[in-house]
Automatic annotation (TrEMBL):
One of its GO terms (biological process) is proton transmembrane transport. Component of the cbb3-type cytochrome c oxidase. The gene is ccoP. The lineage of its organism: Bacteria, Pseudomonadati, Pseudomonadota, Betaproteobacteria, Burkholderiales. Pathway: Energy metabolism; oxidative phosphorylation. It comes from Inhella proteolytica. PANTHER family: CBB3-TYPE CYTOCHROME C OXIDASE SUBUNIT FIXP (PTHR33751). Pfam families: Cytochrome_CBB3, FixP_N. GO terms for molecular function: electron transfer activity; heme binding; metal ion binding; oxidoreductase activity. This is Cbb3-type cytochrome c oxidase subunit. Heme c 1 binds at C142, C145, H146, M273. It comes from the Bacteria.
Amino acid sequence: MSDFFSSGWHWFIAAVSVAGLAFCIWLLFTSSKTTHMSDDGTTGHVWDEDLREMNNPLPRWWLGLFVITVVFSAIYLYLYPGLGQAEGSLKWSSEGQHQAEVDAAKAKTAPLYQRLAAMDAKALAADAEAMGIGQRLFLNNCATCHGSDAKGSKGFPNLTDGDWLWGGEFETIKQTITEGRIGQMPPMAAAVGTGEDQRNVAHYVLSLSGSAHDNLRAQLGKEKFAACAACHGSKGDGNTALGAPRLNDKIWLHGWGEQAIMAMIANGKHNQMPAQKATLAPEQIHVLAGYVWSLSNGGKR
């Protein structure tokens, strides 16, 4: 959007600001003077036969407030940015103030985070203060996708169970939060075969977790499942190195049943968790990872 603006706009804004202030000063002086009045104290203008226009001077308190407003505006424009690109004598900016507040907060909490950074996952999970901080970090940065209770929803993993796409070890969770994750399942229709083949494979996948399925179709789909075994394993155990989910439990991230599995086979799926390293400091990620780890390892919640 900035490509549509040039430095001329900054001069325009400065000119309008100065002109507005000059107009206020002119209005102040002109309004404080009385014009010629008739002997009866009016301007001589009459409406509706008996309505006469008076021209009394403005009250002094009103003029005083007007003067204060004009003087304040001039001082403000001198101290703070308001005239186009002019920085103002104080060199203030909203970005600078925000950064100063962030730096002050970091300096204040540095001793606390230094103590927490030396703790391992179990120690963090047993520390009430660490869990309180971790929970607030989670609610502010993770709850939008995973829910305030961390139980996720369709397409967003449940963090309170023991089922992990990329692994649930403390260091792995830290890496996941820091760098983010990209899960990519390619469309497998060409590798699996026809619509009937895909249906058979779907029933075989259902059979792996003991879900309701057609046994005959499952037997027919077992051979075709070989195209999926490279990522999910021959027994559907999954592969945390690839982020390939387990298929032999009853945890379904993108929906359960024949139609949901067939859609996954035909269309594939792309999932992404954004990296948080630009948002959170390493010591914050350390505490947050401890909180997430505790959710599935019996820690305090």
